[in-house]
Fold:
Amino acid sequence: MRIYNFSPGPAVMPLPALEQAGKEMAEYKDCGMSVMEMSHRSKMYMDIHQEAEALLRDLMSIPSNYKVLFLQGGASQQFAMVPMNLYKNGKADFVITGEWANKAYKEASRVLKATVIASSEDRKFGYIPKVENISPDADYVHICSNNTICGTRFLDIPDTGNISLVSDMSSGILSEVTDVSKFGLIYAGAQKNIGPAGLTIVIIREDLIGSDYASKLPSIFQYKIHAEADSLFNTAPTYSIYMAKLCLEWLKDQGGVAGIQKINESKAALMYDFLDNSKLFRGIAEKEFRSLMNIPFTTDDDAKDKAFIKEAAEEGLLNLSGHRIVGGLRASIYNAMPTEGVQKLVNFMKEFESKNV
Ligand code: PMP
Structure:
């Protein structure tokens, strides 16, 4: 029996995608083997690879002057690859909106002169600060558009003028309509809204590929090498890309990103409306900046939070504990979380409240 999985990632995947993969597990399209067993250079695999890219381009309306790269190493590897590859003046600006943004900043500091131009640490990362005081000679400005742990998101894309904007979209990608042309580079680990872990997506404007500094990096770390090889410089994470293709097909069937955004807004509203009127629970992020994907909340009583997690699990509502560094509770409601799952959670919260107030 499938449960409702509120994990922040790896996370719930669309059931039709899993079922399709199940059917094709041992033999894909009468070719006598699983996708896992295919050469990454075979025609059968290449079709999957190209179709996955075409779907992503279509769903996000990615302009033709952007490359899409299928890489490995997670978003964490991009914390290092971005500064190494975008290095020109050796300076970059960072907006610190939580743990992941801070990790991106720290990793970049190993490569270049990283400057914090804004931070929301003063109010426990509960809001999104104004992005101003951009260094005129920065190679880029880095943001984390959706903050998985603290549950905030950028509602407006900051205007960084002629300085390229780079965004870690790991937990927000494909959840709402995004104007890719406002960014120089977008990266995301796949394991929330794209597919399984093991695949990392980079969407990069072509003029940012191939700086002098980058051309001296080991090949595996150069965007240029991956771009020129259509992400087949070495063995790609073939099965993760195949699963991503199935998930993207499902997303297209939901009305694409605009369609899923409406569903995401109504799912998040179910949670936030309840939290705003609850006598027991409260949402943690400040109202104006709340995420559609990750909803941290608490009863402000450690024992009650723990009891909630245990009792919810008995009802088939799993992985509701907050991140270990902030505690409390968190529901991650990515694209593939059905509305019924959120409704069931809210109903259970009501029941828990009636017994515990
Ligand atoms: N950035 C964000 C916003 C994340 O949520 C995560 C993972 N939860 C990461 C980066 C790190 O991703 P990975 O484990 O793929 O390196």
